[in-house]
Amino acid sequence: MLSPKDVVEQSSKRDVPPASPVWRFPANLMSASPSLPRKETTIEQGDNSIAVVAPVTERCCNQHMCNIILLGLGFFFCMGSFFTCMFSQTVVLNSVHDEYFEGTPTMGYVCLAISFAAMTVSFVLSPALSAVMGPKTSMVIGAGFLTLSIGVFLRPLEITLYMGSLAQGIGAGIMWTVYGHFLTANSTAKTIGRNTGIFWMLFQAGPVCGNLFYFVLTNNASSITDTTRYILFSVLLPASSLGIFTLSLLRHPWVHDTLSVKTCDQSEEKEERLTFGQALQGELKMAMSKEMLLLTPMFVYMGIELTFWMNVYGTSLGYTFSFGSVREALVGLNGMFIGFGQITGGFCYGLLGGFLRRNGRDVGVLLAFVTHLVAFYIAFLILPERSALEMTAARGHIAASPYIALVCSFLLGFGDAGWNNPLFALFGSLYPKDPVSAFAIFQAYQSFGNVISFAYSTTLIVPYQLGIMVITAVLGLFGYCFVEWKLASDEAKLAMMKKKLAEQMIAFQLSDPKPWSSKEAQIISNVLSSNK
């Protein structure tokens, strides 16, 4: 067998340009994976080049895409019902007046504050729960809690509403934490942006359909009657139950006693078994890292703006008499157009995934920031100051227009997708081995922002709430950019180091007549095929 140096020397004796020697894996290595495709990589070394032919691991398969679609459909049914309930529950509870329950204009804010307080605790404990019970089991349990919370609105009672709010928070906390496991485990560094976009579009189609149904029920209605409430939640309850069934079809074992995730890029790595205490300790350590602390303002902002578009903005539209006979229906239309905005945003950011990965995801976050500033200014112009607190006949700074209000709804949804998609892609790059803990920390801080914002929503007028969001958005933007720039710098340095290492190995081989051993071949192959 000729070494690369022998090939170069023989080529020189014939007075022709040196041939590019080709080294191929030994037969025993190639036969170990005969079904894998081959890839030829050429490395330049001075005037010579060496082409290395190596097996390439299959990046994606039908099972990974199937899991992404099932995950999206499960969230379509379950989270679609959940979000429709959250969009409308303040207005719905305000319409209930009987011998069992007396609704108030801000009762929904109180229930949602309880829900997000429970969600914060759930986010902290969910990674450890996933380590013990398995991600699939945890996901189905969380969907069950959400379904139970929807049922309490069929016959509202103060005690059942508070219990349902706790169940709602626990279930949503589990689902929002564990879904990051499935999203990351079924994606590679190249497909995480695309898969996030696919999931986001399927998920957001749920609130669109749910709020469309709400709009049909309440169109031209002056109030929410008992019959309307029964019909609404009699449809949302079985739809959420269908989500439980869909999530149970995920191609993942019911019992999984590890927290670590193997992505498509890491299918051959050995998983580390973690106990409940180890998982919780690792999560707390990650929460105190420099990157997480810099991202904290962004997490809190995403919780505050979530409170605004999910409930406060729609409630303000429903409480404003100047919108006329469509004010109740605007609550449902608001949810629909927010969903349209999020679907459009998920689609656009999915298409731009490769561009943002090459040129920096901070561009995507900047676009979301500008979009939300425009939306906040529109909300400031059209909403009366006290519209989030009570029914009001007052007018905003401009005449109330349903069309302008729905444009604002679309921009709120598009901007929300713009904040979420780059952040999830950043998690895939920063924490590929432990995405569950990363998503849990994010959701915990986000829920903390929800709790604070729902608490002050019971007393602060709309302009003050908008001012708080603008300040936290600026802080969140700077924090994300610092982390993104640091990651890009580290990746560039690592790529340069690997290039130099590969060149040194090639130079050593050219100067040594002995052919490469199987171990040396494996090392150079790992260097050439590494993505990180």
Question: Would you give an account of this structure?
Answer:
The chain has 532 residues and is mostly helical. It folds into 2 domains: 85 residues, no CATH class; 364 residues, MFS general substrate transporter like domains (Growth Hormone, Chain: A), CATH 1.20.1250. The protein is built from 17 helices and 3 strands. A 3-stranded mixed sheet has the order 1-3-2, covered by helices on one side. A hairpin with a 2-residue loop joins strand 2 and strand 3. Helix 10 packs antiparallel against helix 14 and helix 13 packs antiparallel against helix 16. It is globular and about 90 Å long. The two termini are 33 Å apart. The N terminus is likely disordered.
Walk me through the topology.
Elements: H1 4-13, E1 22-24, H2 27-32, E2 38-45, E3 48-55, H3 62-94, H4 107-133, H5 135-151, H6 158-185, H7 192-218, H8 226-248, H9 276-287, H10 290-319, H11 327-351, H12 353-359, H13 362-382, H14 402-430, H15 435-457, H16 462-510, H17 518-529
Parallel strand pairs: 1-3
Antiparallel strand pairs: 2-3
Helix pairs in contact: 3-4, 3-5, 3-6, 3-7, 3-8, 3-10, 3-11, 4-5, 4-6, 4-9, 4-15, 5-6, 5-8, 6-15, 7-8, 7-11, 7-14, 9-15, 10-11, 10-14, 10-15, 10-16, 11-14, 13-14, 13-16
The first-level CATH class of the largest domain is given as Mainly Alpha
Oligomeric description of these chains: single chain
From the helix content, strand content and strand pairing, which structural class follows?
mainly alpha
Question: What letter string, H or E per element, gives the SSE order?
Answer: HEHEEHHHHHHHHHHHHHHH
Tally of distinct domains: 2
Count the E strands: 3
Instruction: Sum up the overall morphology in one term.
Output: globular
CATH architecture of the largest domain: Up-down Bundle
Largest beta-sheet characterization: 3 strands, mixed
The CATH superfamily of the largest domain is identified as MFS general substrate transporter like domains
Low-confidence segments: 1-60, 255-263, 265-271
Number of helical segments?
17
**Helix percentage range:** over 70%
